[in-house]
Amino acid sequence: MTIDVHPQPSGFGAEITGLDLRTPMDQQTYDEVEAALARHGVIFFRNQPLDEAQQEAFIRWFGPPNALAKQLNNARMKNPYFYDVSNVDENGDIMMEDNERRLYLLANLYWHTDMSMRQPPARVTALNARVLPEIDPPDTEFADMRAAWEALPEARKQELESLRAVHSVYASRAKVGYTNFNDETRKLLPPSEHPLIRLHQASGRKHFYMGAHASHIVGMEEEQGRQLLEELVDFATQPQFRYVHKWQPYDLLVWDDSCTMHRATPYDDTQRRELRWCSARELEPV
Ligand code: OGA
Ligand code: MN
């Protein structure tokens, strides 16, 4: 099957039409989708009311999923690879103000890349919208880490190129005041170290790899490293590097976690919002 790719004017972000993902992809279709993702960083498919098995089958084309820490998820999610990105509790009611998962999810408001605390980290995420607020549904914003890197002067690139950053879920959650991790989670999620600048194999382009889980730089005084990361995130997420996704019900939004960052935006959370998240990891440590 031949798909149609409709890129944003900037080339960052593209809609793909011509596919119903309830039917499994074949190799050629996957190759075309992977090529569009490699080129545009973020792709989306409208009107894909997938069940978990269909969404899992989709993501497995891109790599094996990482099992999640149970503590951090909603008991509604039986599939170990799925995260319940919603404001709804185990009983299907809108979460109370003091619900721990609500606090935990607030960290998504910071620019981040999914699962960068893992080794190997996520490579591709797929997020399927089930229920959206009717009034002012929030956008999800993306920033192009390849374009941002390429916009730096050569001398600055050389200063940064060999740095490594430490990533942990404790760093991103500390930003929203969540510290209540149990032993099982601490064991599953030790901090990881990754290069600050990586090479995106499929496009041959280099890019930043950072975000809210990245707390400091290896071999640099912690506060200095934290400030450097903050400065680089501010630089790399300027409006000219962004794609802003306007959600419609049953969108399947798919992004490359290596060469993009993203963030949630605030909304009136007395209205239901329910999305299902799963990701495929890199095959090798990075
Ligand atoms: C995520 C995420 C953003 C949003 O699910 O990984 O960052 O808008 N979500 O919910
Ligand atoms: Mn995310």
TrEMBL record:
Record keywords: Dioxygenase, Iron, Metal-binding, Oxidoreductase
Recorded family membership: Belongs to the TfdA dioxygenase family.
Residues making up the signal peptide according to the UniProt record: none
E.C. numbers: 1.14.11.-
Name of one Pfam family that matches: TauD
TauD/TfdA-like domain ranges (all copies): 7-276
GO molecular function: 2-oxoglutarate-dependent dioxygenase activity; metal ion binding
Protein name: Alpha-ketoglutarate-dependent 2,4-dichlorophenoxyacetate dioxygenase
InterPro entries listed in its UniProt record: TauD-like_sf (IPR042098), TauD/TfdA-like (IPR003819), TfdA_dioxygenase (IPR051178)
UniProt keyword Oxidoreductase, yes or no: yes
Record flagged with keyword Oxidoreductase: yes
